[in-house]
Design brief:
Structural class: alpha/beta
Distance between the termini: 54 Å
Number of strands: 18
Bound molecules: flavin-adenine dinucleotide
Order of helices and strands: EEHEEHHEEHEEEEEHEEEEHEEEHHH
Length: about 375
């Protein structure tokens, strides 16, 4: 049986960050992914905020500086604002600095950085199961480790193997590209375009990443129907290469340490409920998991330090975002109510909500 100090399952942003931190920390690390091409197919809106914007949400500047590194070569467009669009087309614009990245290039770049740090990268190689600190793989082999890091996305095999309860809601998502040069800002659409959820149009270099996510499909509708209707309603051209996937939304779990297993990223349900963004939290949690695993292997520090670390850095903002999302959910069911609410709170209110400052009684409030 092959043996490593740390096996990381899944080479998305969480797994690649975990593998890099573990390898840099001196652990013999294996990073595996069942995809034949890392980062493809793209199942993402491809937007990331700048490190400064991220620091406005999560008070962990050192962690952000170490772990949230967006490879320059993967950036397609820098963006300067967000516009929230009401069901009747009213637009509310506020500043938000970020960028769209090519996820196809981004995931590869992060995985090869982990490899550069000393991790062994194997793909396509899937995990079919886990018990204790051993992982069974699609080639029929078993790999033994001291620590297993589950970074295998929202339908995680590793999370299932430790019995992590499902998130409150798994949003159904569809994404595609359309011909359109776009502008240097990102648009989120609410109301009839994505009932109870949201739709988006994010500018890439020469086209747009478009898509939508809903908690429940309206009766008799498919995600493709909704996407076609959204694109027609907003005057976009027909979609290219649509893909469907999931986003876990809800309160973050209390613990992500299960014996020798650490969970991070979507496998740990660490997604910002107010906007479905999960790339930054995947990178930050992955980094902390990898760092903790390496310390454990090197000097026997307890793995539960991972819970302390991610709680300190991520828990509160994620929990607050989930509260805001649950609080605003009923308003999204009726277009007139939603449109009225958006006009009432305006661009400043929407900005504050995205920054988790409003409503104040749900937390933060500064
Ligand atoms: C349509 C859509 C749009 C989104 N838009 C944005 C956005 O614009 N900005 C943002 O920040 N977030 C966005 N998100 C969320 C974001 O994509 C995720 O939060 C992020 O990718 C999580 O990273 P991860 O590494 O945890 O998981 P993933 O990116 O899902 O990576 C998991 C990896 O594990 C591999 N894997 C899975 N199972 C196994 C297995 N059994 N064995 C081996 N490998 C396995 C997969 O192949 C994959 O490479 C979006 C999500 C969706 C679905």
């Amino acid at each position: 049986m092959e043996r490593f100090d740390v096996v990381v399952v899944g080479a998305g942003p969480a797994g690649a960050s975990a593998a890099r931190a573990a390898a840099e920390g001196g652990a013999r690390t294996l990073l595996l992914d069942h995809r034949t091409e890392l980062g493809h197919p793209v199942q993402c809106g491809e937007f990331v905020p700048t490190a400064t914007e991220l620091g406005d949400l999560f008070n962990c500047p050192e962690l952000i500086a170490r772990a949230f590194v967006v490879p320059e070569s993967t950036i397609l467009r820098s963006t300067r604002w967000m516009e929230c669009v009401s069901p009747y087309g009213h637009r509310f614009r506020f500043p938000l600095a970020g960028a769209t990245v090519s996820r196809r290039a981004f995931d590869k770049a992060l995985a090869y950085r982990a490899e550069g740090a000393g991790a062994e990268l194997r793909f396509p190689l899937g995990a079919t199961g886990r018990s204790g600190a051993t992982v069974r793989t699609t080639d029929g082999e078993t790999i033994e480790a001291e620590v297993v890091i589950g970074a295998d996305g929202p339908l995680s095999t590793v999370a299932r193997s430790v019995g992590l309860p499902r998130p409150r809601t798994l949003y159904r998502m569809i994404t595609a590209t359309v011909e359109d040069p776009g502008e240097d800002g990102i648009d989120l659409f609410f109301g009839r375009d994505a009932p109870g959820g949201y739709a988006w149009a994010f500018p890439r270099a020469h086209d747009l990443n478009v898509g939508l996510g809903v908690a429940r499909l309206p009766r008799g509708r498919t995600l493709s129907d909704l996407l076609d209707r959204f694109l027609a309603h907003r005057g976009f051209s027909p979609p290219r290469d649509p893909t469907r996937w999931w986003v876990p939304v809800g309160q973050p779990p209390a613990s992500l340490v299960h014996g020798p297993v650490l969970l991070c990223g979507d496998a740990a349900q660490l997604v910002m409920a107010t906007n479905g963004g999960g790339i930054p939290t995947a990178m930050l949690s992955g980094w902390l998991a990898g760092e903790t695993a390496a310390r454990h292997v090197r000097s026997g520090t307890p793995l539960r330090e991972y819970d302390t670390a991610w709680h300190a850095a991520l828990y509160e903002p994620l929990a607050r975002a989930a509260k805001i999302q649950a609080w605003s959910d009923p308003y999204t069911a009726l277009d007139p109510l939603l449109a009225l609410g958006m006009r009432y709170i305006g661009a400043r209110g929407l900005d504050s909500m995205m920054r988790l400052r409003w409503p104040a009684r749900l937390g933060r409030g500064t």
